[in-house]
Amino acid sequence: IVFGFCADMASCVAWVCVALVALGIAGQAAGLGNGAKNVLLIAVDDLRPVGQVMGEPEVIAPNLDALASKSTYFEKAYCQAATCGVSRSSLLTSRRPDTTQVLGNGGCPFTTQPEHKSWKSLPQYFREHGFTTAGMGKIFHPGVCEGASVGEQKAAWTLDYYHAPCLQLGSIYDGHCEEKPTRDTSIYRNETAKDSDMPDGMIADRAIETLKNVSKLESPWFVAVGFHKPHLPHIAPAKYFDLYSNLSLPSNPYSARNLPKIAWNECSEPLSYPDWEAEAKASGFGENKSLSVDAQRRHRQGYFAAVSYMDAQLGRVLQTLENLGEADNTIVALFGDHGWHLGENNEWGKHTAMKRANNAPLMFHVPGIEGKVVQQWAEFVDIMPCVKKRGPDNDKTRTMYPHRDLHHP
């Protein structure tokens, strides 16, 4: 492989491929010769770029920082749409939303048209080429294809799929799930819970158990771990809230001048929680009126605390990889399915066409390759073709250089 260091757009996209095919991952996927790397794929719901490496040092995420510092980190990576189901369907099948026809959280990319039934997903590709595949937590959006109990696509997984309780939003309030249509509060400081009493802690526990089991196999493995937080509601044990005080306010709290009406999202997701709705009414919140300063700091603290809680679970999983002696033989890939506004542009949440909602973390740690921040753009839809670059490719996923082949789906 030649390292182009993003001299132009083509070599920039090639950097995604470098992280996935380096040291034989894609080449060995086809034939499974000696040297095939394991893959640990980590998905984080609603994670915007945070921490020291990704440019928001106020957020305490030491494990995310450590992984990013030794990874190829794409600073300008963008999802295909700023909503969970649409973004994940696109990433996992390497097709844009207008091709998957998944335009919301209720669609399944394999059933929107009869011919989609033959499509292969990213984990399915690994399974069909000799990898033992295991999944847990939120990888596909749950409950839209073949069901959460089989990880939405039974053909993708060798081992039984695992979901923690409260699988829709990964949230527990004093022993009960937060699920639609009933709502609790958008922020919850859990004074009594231990990390493993909450869904992301349970998912980390399962990931640790799974890594211990697959490390004993002779075949390479692909393990996908999906954390729910920091998705709303922002719930975490109290100790993670205690990390934050005197928080900063959004750097740009104003909506753009002459903004088309359709471009400003009225924050319907956070407004579905009664505490957020009450604060919005009390502040007179609207396109040209921000939440009160106290409310802004409260919601930023809730998001940051949820990130720090997730980060601790990430650290437990990565430490297990080290303890098992598997780190030098495993590629670690991490993505956030989209970004998140915390008052920037007077927006809270996702569902906008603005940078904060669409720019999301994307990094690959390949053993033997030094960490690097890549500043040119990358798209989530291009991840899967890079994996398949040297393996058989019998379906019409996107090519490696989308700007040269714009007719592709």
What's the short story on this structure?
The protein is of the alpha/beta class and 409 residues long.
Structural class: alpha/beta
Using the CA coordinates, give the radius of gyration. Answer: 20 Å
Q: Summarize model confidence as the mean pLDDT.
A: 85
| E-strand count | 13
What does this structure look like?
It is a single chain. With 409 residues, the protein is α/β, with parallel strands linked by helices. Helices cover 31% and strands 15% of the residues. It has helices spanning 9-21, 25-31, 51-54, 62-69, 84-93, 97-100, 122-128, 199-214, 238-241, 268-271, 274-283, 293-323, 355-358, 383-388; strands spanning 38-44, 72-78, 132-137, 172-173, 176-177, 187-190, 221-227, 234-237, 330-336, 341-342, 348-349, 362-365, 372-379. Strands 3-7-1-9-12-2-13 form a seven-stranded mixed β-sheet, sandwiched between helices. β10 and β11 form a beta hairpin. It is globular. The two termini are 27 Å apart.
